[in-house]
Amino acid sequence: MTRTAGAGEALLEVDSVAKSYGALDVLTAVHLSVPAGQALGIVGPNGAGKSTLLSVINGTERATAGTVRFGGRDVTATPADARARAGMGRTFQVPRPFAHLTVFENALAGATAGAGLRGRAADDRALAALAMADMLGVANTPAGALPLLGRKRLELARALATDPRLLLLDEIAGGLTEAECDSLVATIRSLHTQGITIIWIEHVVRALLAVVERLVCLATGVIVADGEPSEVMRSDAVRAVYLGGAL
Length: 247
Prior knowledge:
It is a single chain. The chain is of the alpha/beta class and 247 residues long. The protein has two domains: 1-87 and 167-247, 3-Layer(aba) Sandwich (Rossmann fold), CATH 3.40.50.300; 98-163, no CATH class. It is 36% helix and 25% strand. It has helices spanning 50-58, 80-86, 103-114, 119-132, 148-160, 178-193, 205-209, 229-234, 236-243, and strands spanning 10-21, 24-35, 39-43, 65-70, 73-74, 88-90, 166-170, 197-201, 214-219, 222-227. Helix 4 (119-132) packs across helix 5. The longest helix is centred in the C-terminal third of the chain and has 16 residues, at 178-193. Residues 1-7 have low confidence and may be disordered.
């Protein structure tokens, strides 16, 4: 199911990307290169521009300036649905399943609307995504009856149903108990070992550190640290961001 590029190739390149809303600058000249197969975590305080960066990457928002390349192709002006079919899957902070549909039907929507599949191919993709998200056992349950962890997993399954090369996770561990978080982390770690490239925004830092091999800190729309996770978390720049000191 998983599609991967060659080892070491840059699957995603964000070059001098900026995003403004009128006079409000949310992102300023962000540079980011993510090799195929890497698990990258993004941390930063509220309002740093993290979710906006994911939206610019997947096409939900259009960059004010700069370039986004995916798989070596310039997708800066490509709409979100076309990026999904090219291999980008995304979850959102607040799960919004189709509550009146079953879990399977929700995943099927990802396979049809996201991946453009029909018939048996769409069914198979939806079932595979549910298996990867550990949701097969509740496939016939109405999505509106799921607890929070189930809704988070369903959000993940819908993204996986698009057969992503790049999986964008936006605070998927937020609001979970410690045990629920550990369960979800195990699932995400498994996805990474299958070769899916991951960019994961998360305030639950211990969850990130259990999976990612690289960590970026974003603050006031710019990257202030980028490297090995433990080193980034110990850096003066990151301490300043979280403790309010001067950079």
